[in-house]
Amino acid sequence: MLASRWLLCVVSSAVCVLEASSLDTFVAAVYEHAVILPNVTQLPVSSEEALALMNQNLDALERAVTSAAKQGAHIIVTPEDGIYGMHFSRQAIYPYLEDIPDPQVNWIPCNNPDRFGYNPVQKRLSCLAKSNSIYVVANIGDKKPCHASDSHCPPDGRYQYNTNVVFDSQGKLVARYHKQNLFLGEDQFDAPREPEFVTFNTSFGKFGIFTCFDILFHDPAVTLVKDFHVDTILFPTAWMNVLPHLSAIEFHSAWAMGMGVNFLASNIHYPTKRMTGSGIYAPESPKSFHYDMRTKEGKLLFAQLDSHPHRPAVNWTSYASSIEALSVGNKEFKSIAFFDEFTFVVLKGIAGNYTVCQNDLCCHLSYQMSEKRSDEVYALGAFDGLHTVEGQYHLQICTLLKCRTMDLSTCGSSVDTASTRFEMFSLSGTFGTQYVFPEVLLSDIKLAPGEFQVSSDGRLLSLKPTSGPVLTVTLFGRLYEKDSASGIRVHSLIIVLMGLISIIYASLRLHSEFQVSLG
Ligand SMILES: *[C@@H]1O[C@H](CO)[C@@H](O)[C@H](O)[C@H]1NC(C)=O
Ligand SMILES: *[C@@H]1O[C@H](CO)[C@@H](O)[C@H](O)[C@H]1NC(C)=O
Ligand SMILES: *[C@@H]1O[C@H](CO)[C@@H](O)[C@H](O)[C@H]1NC(C)=O
Ligand SMILES: *[C@@H]1O[C@H](CO)[C@@H](O)[C@H](O)[C@H]1NC(C)=O
């Protein structure tokens, strides 16, 4: 593509400048990498051993970058923890860390590797970007010494950050982002005191970047889109799939659509930990995605995207608040989805209109199934409340889902196969937020590109009969302002308490193995 543009230059150098300075579309690549994990993650290894392990992973990333560049990609995203793995103690991660400077220093590590000390990983990533003329996005660890005079300085005298870096097609470091919302058990890292809003311009749009668990919170994720007006989000992640609403491809594609941005999500490939699911998502539809629990191989994805995607305006409550309840007198029941107690009604017929409410949220559904099977139950559910397990965040969710078995207490439980296709559906809710992420997930964890849309009055509508049986059709809403339920004072009290608890934990050397679900 670039070659044909440069041919144009021969014809007219004026056209050349215009053409080269801005592209309407670009090719994105995302690599789901089967990370080679170190055997030792609780005790420090030598820096030579650490580098040897990282070089093994960099060898695989190099093959992906080279292949992506050959196929015309302008940018490639690689996963969180993709160079050294996860589940480290604070001391054990240290030999893997490098001092990563602020990109303002204007540095091409490949040309000048020793300018900021010994940084072999940054040098190698920079050279990969430069020699292949492609933007390279990777996740590595940053270390910054601090002094006891800094009251926040950790006892070991340094900050350690989970860090995304971006090198441009000349190998220059153009972005450094320290992960804000660390996941439970990510004790090897510190969160920056204030969220960092990291963006950079290219000839193919403005980019923003954040990491994994950040996607559930307002800062920096929402602010990058709302106030910094980025076109495309770069998203390295180590995401453990959780059904029915938080599998990687499902939630990440929904965020792209809900926020009106391109979204490049690169996950680790680690099926035994339920980590798989990467994709290239445009606001109107997923362009490419990968979910694979069967093989151990990595996967390189490509798609062409608009450099400046169109951001449609949606009023998420308009339709739902304008209509009466679609049915009354249906028997409601309660059941749990990922630790949250939903209010459900069963879908009785092959077609119908239903409403179910919980607290301030009412959800309306009109649907028609292709057949009404006697061995499957579908239900419409509503949840309006504070989720408190593995993170605290207020949700408003309207969901049509397949119950795991015929037993209604399994509605909301994890299930990944179904047999019922839908001829049509229309789902809406009286949301108290403009941040609603529309999800459609089909049997065997497949997306449904081009099969549905969101109308400006806030309905999630099918455009055609579904191409496969349906697991869930969901509007996943976030009320960020209600995350700390009782306000600032309780919030700071919790922070103080958490600080005390972590000190006690550290002193007792209790490193419990949390069953993490996201990264
Ligand atoms: C971990 O240990 C196994 C068995 O000793 C060995 O085969 C493997 O190469 C080691 N992995 C690394 C990354 O050193
Ligand atoms: C990025 O580009 C936009 C317009 O395309 C411009 O307004 C903005 O100043 C640029 N930002 C930087 C950091 O160059
Ligand atoms: C959305 O629609 C509702 C109902 O029609 C209206 O009351 C509300 O003001 C609208 N919200 C916005 C942000 O336009
Ligand atoms: C559902 O409502 C629509 C109009 O709101 C109506 O045309 C349709 O017949 C209803 N379906 C059933 C099964 O009641």
Automatic annotation (TrEMBL):
It catalyses: (R)-pantetheine + H2O = cysteamine + (R)-pantothenate. GO terms for molecular function: pantetheine hydrolase activity. Its main location: membrane. One of its GO terms (cellular component) is plasma membrane. Pfam families: CN_hydrolase, Vanin_C. The active site is at 80 (proton acceptor), 179 (proton donor), 212 (nucleophile). The chain crosses the membrane at residues 488-508. It is found in: Cell membrane. Its EC number is 3.5.1.92. It is a lipid-anchor; GPI-anchor. Residues 1-22 form the signal peptide. CDD domains: biotinidase_like (cd07567). The keyword NAD does not apply. GO terms for biological process: acute inflammatory response; cell-cell adhesion; chronic inflammatory response; coenzyme A catabolic process; innate immune response; pantothenate metabolic process; positive regulation of oxidative stress-induced intrinsic apoptotic signaling pathway; positive regulation of T cell differentiation in thymus. Residues 36-307 form the CN hydrolase domain. It is an enzyme of class 3 (hydrolase). Keywords: Cell membrane, Glycoprotein, GPI-anchor, Hydrolase, Lipoprotein, Membrane, Signal, Transmembrane, Transmembrane helix. It comes from the Eukaryota. Amidohydrolase that hydrolyzes specifically one of the carboamide linkages in D-pantetheine thus recycling pantothenic acid (vitamin B5) and releasing cysteamine. Belongs to the carbon-nitrogen hydrolase superfamily. BTD/VNN family. Monomer. This is Pantetheinase.
